[in-house]
């Protein structure tokens, strides 16, 4: 009797997961500042992020940033962001600049040519593809963005970022929280390479 009940529960659980696979997942994009060297001081003007997405849009015109798949690996729904991905990346960069000792002054323009030190952010792709394995589910996140350090309108450094990797931890279900965690991890890992280059370029830029 116990084995029958166990089988029924497992079957109902699988049916529930399959049903969820047909529902779009809305996720909040998060980030935890890590702190990178070299340290600096003074003001950096952060341009408004430039969104140049290559992502598809859903029928309502919303940006699609990931896939929801059923147990057979077929795409059945989409992952949609609650907050704007370009702003998410720009805010993460700003938080790292502040942690490195800079005062960040945000600009409403996507291009800043009238500041001693400025940073521009261009985002082209933010995506997480559900990775359905035999027993567990992961999420392969892909980020394409570019960080440009400028001084009085002159480009000091351009740091192109291309990142794609599966999340470190996997789950038995392809939930929205798994995909949010995957993108968070992707941004933190990609900035671990990009931010030291940005901070080095800022340190060598004129202050006036």
Account of the 3D structure:
A hairpin with a 2-residue loop joins strand 8 and strand 9. The strands form two sheets. Strands 2, 3, 6, 7, 8 and 9 form a six-stranded mixed sheet that branches. The protein has helices at residues 2-20, 85-99, 176-204; strands at 25-27, 43-46, 50-51, 66-69, 75-81, 103-106, 118-132, 137-151, 154-166. It is 30% helix and 32% strand. The termini are far apart.
List keywords for this structure.
208 residues, three-stranded mixed β-sheet, 9 strands, six-stranded mixed β-sheet, alpha/beta, elongated, disordered N terminus, 30% helix
What topology does this entry show?
Blueprint: H1 2-20, E1 25-27, E2 43-46, E3 50-51, E4 66-69, E5 75-81, H2 85-99, E6 103-106, E7 118-132, E8 137-151, E9 154-166, H3 176-204
Parallel strand pairs: 1-5, 2-6, 2-7, 3-7
Antiparallel strand pairs: 4-5, 7-8, 8-9
């Amino acid at each position: 009797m116990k084995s029958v009940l166990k089988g029924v529960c497992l079957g109902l659980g699988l049916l529930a997961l399959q049903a969820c696979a047909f529902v779009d997942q809305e996720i909040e994009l998060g980030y935890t500042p890590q702190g990178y060297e070299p340290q600096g001081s003074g003001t950096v003007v952060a341009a408004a992020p430039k969104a140049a997405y290559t992502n598809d849009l859903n029928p309502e015109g919303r940006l699609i940033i990931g896939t929801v798949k059923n147990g057979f690996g077929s795409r059945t729904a989409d992952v949609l962001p609650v907050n704007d991905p370009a702003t998410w990346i720009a805010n993460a960069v700003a938080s790292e600049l502040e942690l490195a000792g800079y005062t960040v002054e945000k600009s409403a323009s996507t291009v800043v040519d009238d500041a001693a030190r400025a940073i521009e952010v261009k985002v082209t792709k933010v995506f997480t593809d559900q990775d359905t394995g035999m027993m567990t589910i992961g999420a392969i996140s892909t980020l394409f963005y570019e960080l440009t350090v400028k001084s009085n309108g002159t480009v000091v450094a351009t740091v192109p970022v291309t990142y794609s990797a599966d999340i470190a931890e996997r789950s038995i279900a392809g939930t929205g929280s798994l995909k949010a965690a995957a993108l968070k991890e992707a941004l933190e890992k990609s900035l671990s390479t990009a931010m030291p280059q940005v901070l080095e370029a800022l340190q060598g830029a004129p202050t006036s």
